[in-house]
Amino acid sequence: MKAPTPRVGAFCVDGAAMMAPVSTPAARSWSSWRTIVVLGLVSLCADMAYEGMRAVSGPFLGSLGASALVVGVVTGAGEAVALVLRLVSGRWADRSRRHWRLTVVGYALTAVCVPLLAVTPFLGSAGLAVAASLILLERTGKAIRSPAKSAILARVARPTGRGRGFGVHKALDQVGAFSGPLLLAGAAAVTGLQWPGLALLAIPGGVSLALLWLLARRVPSLTRPDDDDDVDVADDAPIGASVGRGLPRAFHLFALGSACATAGLTTFGVISYRFVEIGLVPLAAVPLVYALAMATGALASLVAGDLFDRFGGGVLLGVPLLVALVPAAVFLSESLVVVLTGVAVWGVAIGVQDSTVKAYVADLVPSTRRATAYGVFAAIQGVGALVGGAAAGGLVADHAGLLVIAVLAVQVVALLLTAGAIRDSRVRA
User: What topology is assigned to 29-222+245-428 in CATH?
Assistant: First the structure.
């Protein structure tokens, strides 16, 4: 059953209308670009926290006693949790219309869990288990907020072009993604330790929550479907039941193709574990290498977003091609230049994928099912992330050549599925 249409001048937080005249400052809605930029700043601050943590997660877990396999499983499981749990949180957002509440809760988990990692080196034998739990809990926060936030962004980015809107948001997101690792690198250079930098990440985490509170007061309600929706396929089934029904075939093909691409995108935890283990990069410089990847990803997201609005989903065919180039560079070579080039290509692949897939999903499904679609999409990606992370962790030490071949094969499948989804959506249109 559709939610009632709010009156002109009414804005909604968590589905409850806050009635006020449009002329008052508290109720006046921001422009699309202003909303996109502020939401991007929220992500920038949050990314400083959790990407700073992810930049050192592999070596940090290793310092607590983790093996390469444990690092691969924990980091891969973290990505899987961040994706698979969106299956529930996305459906919940669509049915409850509480987009802002879910977004705030998700960001709050990140703001709390990341700084708490700073205490794990002092917990003795329990440190590794606590650190792994905090990483998984932080990724749970990502799962809670992401579908709701993406649905908000897809709505406000319609006037700007969704490719450009998501691209600018992702670029700001990536600025935080390399600022956080730089902060950790600076703290490690000064103190010789990693935990002080993790503790400092409480500051950007708190700023992200303050910005989000301000933003939630200025964005219109999401209770109404988009004007250009062909059909309204919302339903009243339980949250966990048949969440993918009513979504088009092209969407499912695209989700499977993206899952294959994600499986080949080895987590940075495994990549950094490998080049630190062979002595190619010192532990203190790992955040700098991660910052390089995030910087290239930021530039790639801006370019990819613009290309998406100009040429459509065909831009996404480049993602499997980029992913296929990474393993040979980062796992088979012992040249610093080649490894850093591979890391940069890894960052470009992430930037292109993250800035365009959400825009394309928004084009494939009705607005009333958008958060659900993001959740289903991410859950399928999560399976790929878990399998890929575990496989990379198990193979990288003694069977790197086999890992390279496996990634190449999976990317061929990803390319075929993505091309099929694009063709199917064009035929349907």
Answer: Growth Hormone; Chain: A; (1.20.1250)
